[in-house]
Design brief:
Length: 864
């Protein structure tokens, strides 16, 4: 029996060892193999869910106020700036910023200063947060405290005898003292997506690691988006199908972490609104393809300066005259330096400069039309340096291989966004799925000794393999539908607000823009609804009331602009619905009687009760319907005639009833579903969240206690003119094209409407815990947990993007520290002196002999 049992144990051990030798099952991001066998990996696999309360924080140095608040240089100032002021290391200074603006202007840049400045600051911000995350990982894992033979380094090039020429890598242990089978390169990504440069870098790293025989890990700061995971998988599959030599292993993981400014951790003095923590998914989502191309161009210039040996960027003429009037044709991307010494950015492989985008910007508050992505030009061929002979191994001299130009990455034509007439609202219930199992923590395994054989140097990977095309890192998210639908009034007992935006999903192949713009609009509106008294939240458009358009303070905010523009659009939509070039309009006109006249009317938009669920300190905003109210007035714009006075009043009433029965339902549906009213719906959802905060604050002060009704909107104002909107409305009442009209023997007649939008009162209805659990269980499992990264609701129609805004440093909310990682450490070399073995041999013999005698004695006495 004992022999059979021992045989079974041995067989099971053999099976376990055999299974352990197989590659890890391929994840949906294309991962394979073990990045470091026998050692527990840090963080979580990209396919796993981290606990929502597991969050780490790290600091980054903020940009200087003079850069953030920089004003456009005058032509005289630009003339005094020398191109030599744009040098590596001063990109985040005012002098360096102005020098790069001059290079952009001289190069034929088509964007105005405000657009360029916004893109430039976004790039600088990303270049500070990214290196800070890399340093956070390296320091938290305590890799710098390991012995030198462990080989761990950060923000450096590989040893010259291994890779004579190449980029700077984030974290790696590639060294002669480490066995090749244990080599690992870790690329740190502070977001949950891969932008244009990061995708080119990913392809380059896969090829280089395949040549070197090193494993590759991408470590994100949050769970990577589904679109990013699919892109990585497709790229891995494409490279493998093209015959590219692949790394022994590739994995994508994430360590949940939030950045905070070192000097300003998210709080503001006095009664100002605190700023949200940086959110890479939204912060890096440009407003349009043109804006994305501009940011790529700026980032490429900065990266080119970081890698002067790998790419020589074109130089703009020094002190050339500044062109007057129209700008010349666009030129290649300008150079830009690396960030200042507070947050040095790692040098990366050269990114391809993005071509100049068309000049026409996207219209305000409307999603920009998708434009075909331009082809990226390849840089010139640069010969690689001669390769040295492998260390300690004689090798013939090798000719210097030619490094061909990186591949042209075919960017797909971006289709025009499909705008559904009535997209599925987020309130639709979906079957709940069980919560994902969390991975059990692995215990560190002891390091396995392996002979340290220095690897021969290898050439840079051959480029030219096509990579899977993609619309960008944000495919799959419809940012035009983004709304704030989850808030808390504290986080772990601290004065902070965790919140989550909900957005509709898109096919992963369909690009989307405007995430940054729409998230800021929703957050700014939330603060406006808190800072100003609710009785001010109205707008009015009436021809005879040019002095009662909007309350003065509210008229300085974007929320006020959104309401007034929506009011005008509602009146124009009402007119378009009555035109005979639509089926509804034809039926409406045919059904009217008499002179087909009806009285002018007052139309105004008001909220209906919002469906919500309050769970402790959490609020789920489930449905936020709007409606249109109607009232009649005894006046009508009728040029040259007065038809309604000649018409039987009963007929006039009949025609008015037809309007309410046929046109009003379509108008209400448009307000609740048409893209033209997306901004109105977005700011109203924030209004519901703010009203909840007002009521909570009345019972117990929140972090916004000083902001509520303070009137402080200094940081929330935008430049716009309410009278310009009123003038457009007035013109519409005098022009037949955008207004309902008809022609008969007596002439042409058109009607008008007036009214406004009134958000002064908000009512909510809590659906209760049983109904919430039954219908919205999937919302509960994704809204709050999306703090670790974008999560798709299990109905596959909604994606949630979480973040936090805090009045206290984030490390007070999440005080847990990231523990050290125990990666492979090369074992110390055994002593080689003969005296050591002469002393050791008798001891081994004595122990072995003693053990044998003890076994014989126990066997003789019958003890087993």
């Amino acid at each position: 029996m004992k022999a059979a049992f021992r045989g079974l144990i041995a067989a099971l051990l053999l099976v376990c060892f055999a299974l352990h030798a197989l590659p890890v099952a391929q994840a949906n991001y294309g991962g394979y193999g073990d990045c470091d066998p026998g050692v527990p990996m840090p963080g979580y696999d990209a396919t796993q869910m981290a606990p929502p309360n597991e969050m780490h924080t790290y600091d980054y140095d903020p940009l200087s106020p003079e850069v953030r608040n920089a004003q456009e240089p005058s032509r005289a100032e630009l003339a005094d700036i020398d191109d030599k002021d744009a040098v590596r290391g001063n990109a985040d200074t005012l002098q360096g910023m102005k020098a790069r603006w001059k290079k952009y202007v001289l190069g034929g840049g088509a964007k105005p200063w405000d657009k360029w400045k916004k893109a430039y600051i976004n790039v600088l911000q990303n270049r500070r947060v990214g290196p800070a995350f890399e340093k956070f990982l390296y320091d938290s894992w305590k890799l710098g405290e390991l012995p030198p033979e462990a080989g761990w380094q950060t923000n450096k090039q590989l040893p010259k005898n291994i890779l004579p020429s190449g980029p700077v890598f984030d974290i790696f242990n590639i060294a002669d003292s480490v066995p090749v089978s244990k080599w690992l390169v870790i690329e740190a990504k502070s977001g949950t997506t891969l932008g244009t440069h990061a995708r080119n870098q990913f392809v380059d790293h896969v090829k280089r690691m395949g040549q070197l025989g090193s494993s590759l890990m991408v470590m994100f700061a949050g769970r990577p988006t589904d679109a990013t995971q699919r892109w990585m998988k497709q790229t891995i599959d494409d490279l493998r199908a093209a015959g590219v030599k692949m790394p022994p292993a590739f994995c994508a993981r994430y360590t949940p972490a939030k950045p905070q400014e070192r000097q300003n951790p998210g709080s503001a003095a006095g009664n100002s609104a605190p700023r949200p923590a940086p959110d890479p998914v939204l912060d890096e989502s440009a407003d349009s393809p043109e804006d994305q191309a501009l940011e790529d161009q700026i980032a490429s210039g900065l990266e080119a300066e970081d890698n002067p040996t790998e790419q020589v960027p074109a130089q703009a003429p020094t002190n050339a005259p500044i062109p007057a009037g129209a700008n010349p044709a666009p030129a290649p991307a300008p150079q830009a330096p690396a960030p200042g010494p507070q947050a040095p950015a790692p040098a990366q492989p050269p990114a391809l400069p993005a071509p100049q985008a068309p000049a026409a910007p996207a219209p305000p508050r409307l999603p920009a039309p998708a434009l075909p992505a331009p082809q990226l030009p390849a840089p010139p061929r640069v010969p690689a340096p001669a390769l040295p002979a492998p260390p300690r191994l004689p090798a013939p001299a090798l000719p210097a291989p030619q490094l061909p130009a990186p591949p042209r990455l075919p960017a797909p034509a971006l289709p025009a966004p499909q705008i559904p007439a009535a997209p599925a609202p987020p309130r639709l219930p979906a079957p709940a799925l069980p919560a994902p199992a969390l991975p059990a923590p692995a215990l560190p395994a002891p390091a396995v000794p392996a002979p340290a054989v220095p690897a021969p140097s290898v050439p840079a990977p051959t480029v030219g393999v096509p990579v899977s095309a993609s619309p960008g890192p944000f495919g799959g998210i419809d940012f035009t539908s983004l709304e704030m639908r989850y808030v808390t009034d504290s986080v772990n007992g601290k004065p902070a607000m965790q919140y989550a935006f909900s957005a509709n999903t898109l096919p992963v192949t369909e690009a989307s823009y405007g995430g940054r713009r729409n998230a800021k609009m929703a957050m700014d509106a939330f603060y406006v609804w808190l800072a100003l008294p609710p009785q001010n939240f109205w707008v009015n458009l009436k021809p005879t009331e040019p002095d009662r358009i909007i309350e003065a303070a509210f008229g300085r905010t974007e929320a006020g602009e959104v309401l007034l523009e929506a009011d005008l659009e509602m009146k124009l939509v009402s007119a378009r619905l009555q035109k005979t070039d639509t089926e509804l309009g034809r039926r409406f006109v045919d059904a009217m009687q008499g002179n087909k006249c009806y009285l002018g009317r007052r139309l105004w938009i008001v909220p209906q009760p919002a469906e919500v669920h309050e769970d402790g300190d959490q609020l789920y905003i489930l449905d936020t319907p709007l409606t249109v109210k109607i009232g009649t007035d005894q006046s009508d714009v009728t040029p040259g005639t007065d038809l309604c006075q000649d018409q039987d009043p009963a007929v006039t009433d009949h025609n008015g009833q037809l309007y309410q029965q046929m046109i009003m339902p379509a108008l209400i549906d448009a307000v609740n579903h048409n893209p033209d009213f997306a901004d109105l719906r977005r700011v109203y959802t924030s209004r519901v969240a703010a009203e909840w905060y007002r009521k909570r604050n009345a019972n117990k002060p929140t972090q916004y206690a000083k902001l509520i009704d303070s009137g402080n909107i200094d940081d929330l104002t935008v430049a716009w003119d309410p009278h310009e909107v009123w003038q457009r409305y007035l013109d519409s009442t005098k022009h037949p094209e955008p207004t309902f009209s008809w022609t008969d023997a007596k002439g042409t007649t058109w009607t008008r409407s007036w009214g406004g939008v009134d958000f002064s009162k908000v009512e909510t209805h809590d659906i209760g815990a049983p109904e919430f659990t039954q219908k919205y269980d999937s919302v509960a499992k994704t809204a709050g947990p999306s703090i670790i990264g974008p999560l798709v609701q299990d109905n596959a129609k909604q994606v949630w993007l979480g973040n936090v805004v805090s009045s206290v440093p984030l490390d007070q909310i999440w005080p847990s520290k990231l523990g050290p990682w125990v990666p492979f450490v090369a074992p110390a070399t055994a002593p080689s002196k003969p005296l050591f073995y002469l002393v050791l041999l008798p001891a081994v013999a004595w122990l072995g002999g003693g053990g044998y005698l003890l076994w014989r004695r126990r066997r003789a006495s019958g003890v087993r």
